[in-house]
Design brief:
The protein is of the alpha+beta class. It has a domain at 26-135 and 181-220: Electron Transport, Fmn-binding Protein, Chain A (Pnp Oxidase, Chain A, Roll). It has six helices and ten strands, in the order H-H-E-E-E-E-H-E-E-H-H-H-E-E-E-E. The radius of gyration is 20 Å and the shape is globular. The two termini are 24 Å apart. Residues 43-162 form the Pyridoxamine 5'-phosphate oxidase N-terminal domain. Residues 183-223 form the Pyridoxine 5'-phosphate oxidase dimerisation C-terminal domain.
């Protein structure tokens, strides 16, 4: 093992002058109103702390061989219904979620020593929801969605750049760029939500809430 990597670690002390944690300990009672209020609070804290792309989350799926696949996507909606992101439905993740409609996402906010993992079944959102978000995107992002056959091989960067130029010619600045028909939103409906808070000596706080038979249970997990 690379010795430098083996020596890398963060103490997660976050202690003030009096030796106490600046961030109060995560406890089960903070989920008395469900997972959503605390998740929103933690996301807001990450934004205020200046965490880069605080809505970035690692999305886990499985391929046709049952092998795990992960990549980073951006959360574009958070509500009682679940966690929302958008993609090309013919991309690797889109096809994998069509075949196995269950996903896991993890938000990792290292500067504030917190992370949240959400797992649950997925579904495609309505065309109306997709259309509303699509038209909030910058023009360049919409052109990029048309230019890219996401996850498909391409010969060179020059070919990719040419595809973007072709999309720009197809949709001039005075023309509305419509939603690509194979592009849209995917909603993860939470079945399990785990909150993790870093602590010294690897004695981290982990609180998990799970949905079973229509009700939520809350439990503390050992680190």
């Amino acid at each position: 093992m690379n010795k430098d990597l083996a020596a890398m670690r963060v103490g997660y002390a976050h202690q003030g002058a009096d030796g106490r944690y600046v961030d109060s300990d995560l406890d089960a009672d903070q989920l008395s109103d469900g997972w959503l209020p605390l998740m929103r609070l933690w996301l807001e804290d990450a934004v205020e702390a200046g965490v880069p792309e605080p809505n970035a989350m690692t999305l886990g799926t499985v391929d046709e061989h049952g092998h795990p696949c992960t990549r980073t996507v951006l959360c574009k909606g958070l509500s009682a219904d679940g966690v929302l992101f958008f993609t090309n439905y013919d991309s690797d993740k889109g096809r994998q979620l069509e075949a196995v409609p269950y996903a896991s996402v993890t938000f990792t906010w290292v500067p504030v020593a917190r992370q949240i993992t959400v797992r649950g079944p997925v579904e495609r959102v309505s065309a109306e929801v997709t259309d509303e978000y699509w038209h909030s995107r910058p023009r360049g992002s919409r052109l990029g969605a048309w230019a890219s056959e996401q996850s498909k091989p391409i010969g060179s960067r020059a070919e990719l750049d040419a595809a973007l130029l072709h999309a720009a010619e197809r949709f001039p600045v005075d023309v509305d760029i419509p939603v690509r028909p194979d592009w849209g939103g995917i909603l993860i409906r939470p079945a399990v939500v785990e909150f993790w808070q870093g602590r010294a000596n690897r004695m981290h706080n982990r609180i998990r809430t799970s949905l079973a038979d229509g009700s939520w249970t809350v439990e503390r997990l050992q680190p």
